[in-house]
Every structure is written in structure tokens, then in C-alpha cells.
Design goal:
Elements (H helix, E strand, L loop, with lengths): L1 E5 L8 H14 L3 E10 L1 H12 L7 E5 L5 E9 H11 L3 H17 L6 H21 L4
Length: 142
């Protein structure tokens, strides 16, 4: 089950598209899904998570917490809408596109991909681009 929580009330979220996108990435990676929670939050909330669990006292765009204890993917993805808006402006893309990129990125982390080196970061970025490109036509993403 994939559950979407929108704790960021200033941004409408199409939950069905969010669920479809995550399922598409999981299917593309041949990963089985168990329980995944996706939570949209603000700077303050994600900064607290970042500080409490990753020991970083700053905001970030997305944090994933894999909880897998078998081959089925389980975990939580937190996406910061404040940061999403800033990045969309910086990269000159629509907010929805940046949000989808972060969602794909967070899903890839749950699957087990990392971005701790230049090589792994590049691999994740290529996968993000690939899934974004495929999903634009399938799900009519903006």
C-alpha cells in the first residue's frame, strides 16, 4: 500500500498521480512494494527530521527512510515543498516536475540506490531523467 500525506496545505497534491509514479518506478526497477508512506512537509519539519536522524542542522529537499526487512520495498519518503519550489525556480522547471523528480529520487533510495559518490549520484540522476521522461507521456505530468 502506498499512502500519501499532505502536511503542506498551501500546495495541492494529486495523490493518485503520486501513487502511480511510485508504482511505475518500482515496476521499472522490478521491485515489489509493501508499505510506503509519502509525506509532503515544509522547511521546518524536514529540518527537524534532518537534524534528528541524519545529524544535519539544515533543510533539504527529500529524505527517505527505507524500512525493508525483506525484498519488498517498505519505507517513508518526506518531500519538502518549500525547497521544491525554490529548486523549481532555480532550475527553471515547473513545481510539479521538480516534485516528481524528488519523488522518483526518494523512491530510488527506498529501492537501495545511493548518491554518496559522483558515480552513484550520476546513475541516480540518469534514472530520474529516464523515469521523468517516460512518465510525462503516461501520466500526463506537467
Amino acid at each position: 500500500m502506498i499512502t500519501v500525506f499532505n502536511n503542506y496545505k498551501k500546495q495541492k497534491i494529486d495523490k493518485s498521480k503520486i501513487v502511480s509514479l511510485v508504482k511505475f518506478v518500482l515496476k521499472g526497477e522490478k521491485s515489489l512494494q509493501k508499505n510506503i508512506n509519502i509525506v509532503f512537509v515544509d522547511d521546518e519539519y524536514i529540518t527537524q527530521l534532518n537534524k534528528q536522524y541524519l545529524y544535519h542542522n539544515w533543510t533539504t529537499d527529500v529524505i527517505s527512510f527505507p524500512l525493508n526487512d525483506d525484498k519488498k520495498i517498505e519505507g517513508e519518503i518526506y518531500i519538502n515543498i518549500d525547497q521544491t519550489r525554490r529548486q523549481a525556480k532555480e532550475y527553471k522547471v515547473k513545481i510539479s516536475e521538480e516534485l516528481n523528480r524528488l519523488l522518483i529520487h526518494g523512491t530510488l533510495h527506498l529501492i537501495g540506490y545511493t548518491d554518496t559518490t559522483q558515480r552513484t549520484k550520476k546513475k541516480m540522476s540518469l534514472l530520474e531523467d529516464m523515469y521523468l521522461g517516460k512518465c510525462k507521456n503516461i501520466y500526463k505530468l506537467e
